[in-house]
Design a protein that fits this description.
Shape: globular
Number of domains: 1
CATH superfamily: P-loop containing nucleotide triphosphate hydrolases
Distance between the termini: 51 Å
Structural class: alpha/beta
Strand content: 15-25%
CATH topology: Rossmann fold
Number of helices: 14
């Protein structure tokens, strides 16, 4: 099968013919190959138009802000919308990811699940959640040590077997470079270029989770910016979209917030998703409600209805 990686030069006429064929094809199987993958979050999908095929989407934040949880929520939402999703988790085990998904789906505190301190009603919700999650077309590779070459090979193989729609990598800085004598900036540059190559080759969006440097903590304003990408190299250059998660309630107590902002209410459990780079679209910020108890993100409107 021809992939984008092994194509030769094509005339503009051929490219346009292919585009017209794909955009006017009524076959659902072929149509799916051109459609974006929706995150399941209304405002984010409206801003981005969904996750576009062949795009590299960087999701970055400082530790314990919720970047892995948001990526996992997007994976679950995409699967519930009949997409096939692959997760390469270099940090957490498959069992840890499964526990987070069960917690989110069953609305049972993840710490209670981990300590097995649950009542009968919660147990019933957990059993029901496991049944629902088992039907999702989601694949997890939790090998802790992987090179970008291994990741590319695994993604291609799974794509041939399952025709995946979305790949999530958690997280970039744990991927091993091919040339151990290079410095880390060069390695990360090679990794980001390769992840973009995977997105184009397989014609799928790739979400790559990334750490941010400690510079965020050392400024009066802790709001992330593009220069905070850790070992950045060419991450900003290679990415089609760079997004940050920022939470005021991580940095300020309610008392501190009220003294600084006497008019604005304390933004408890509010996660701001900042689109700092968007190669083919607008920049902007959207707010999501983050329930840390269940590792669950929600649209703000949904949260208001639930309450």
């Amino acid at each position: 099968r021809e992939t984008r990686e092994n194509r030769d030069f094509r005339s503009l006429r051929d490219v346009l013919d292919t585009y017209l064929e794909e955009s006017s094809d009524d076959d659902p199987e072929n149509l799916n190959k051109t459609q974006p993958i929706f995150t399941g979050f209304r405002d984010l999908d409206q801003l981005l138009g969904g996750l576009q095929r062949s795009d590299l989407f960087i999701l970055a934040a400082r530790p314990s802000i919720g970047k892995s949880s948001l990526a996992l929520n997007i994976a679950m939402n995409a699967c519930k919308n009949n997409s096939t999703v692959a997760i390469l988790s270099l940090e957490m085990s498959g069992e840890q990811l499964a526990m987070r998904m069960v917690s989110s789906e069953a609305k049972v505190d993840s710490h209670s699940i981990r300590r097995n301190v649950i009542n009968n009603q919660e147990q019933q919700r957990i059993v029901s959640a496991i049944g629902a999650l088992s039907d999702l077309d989601l694949y997890i590779d939790d090998s802790p040590i992987q090179t970008i070459t291994e990741i590319r090979s695994k993604a291609r193989r799974l794509n041939l077997e399952r025709n995946i729609d979305l790949l999530i990598v958690d997280y970039m800085q744990l991927i091993q470079g091919l040339h151990r004598n290079e410095n880390r900036v060069q390695e990360i540059s090679e990794i980001s270029r390769s992840l973009k190559g995977i997105a184009r080759d397989l014609n799928i969006p790739v979400i790559a989770i990334s750490q941010l440097s400690r510079a965020v903590e050392q400024r009066p304003s802790h709001r992330p910016q593009l220069s905070d990408l850790r070992d950045s190299g060419s991450i900003e250059q290679d990415a089609d979209i760079v997004s940050f998660i920022y939470r005021e309630d991580v940095y300020y107590t309610e008392e501190e917030w009220n003294s600084r902002n006497p008019v604005e209410p304390y933004p408890k459990n509010i996660a701001e998703v900042i689109i700092a780079k968007h190669r083919n679209g607008p920049l902007g910020n959207i707010n999501l409600f983050f329930n840390e108890q269940y590792a669950e993100f929600k649209d703000m409107a949904t949260r208001e209805i639930d309450n």
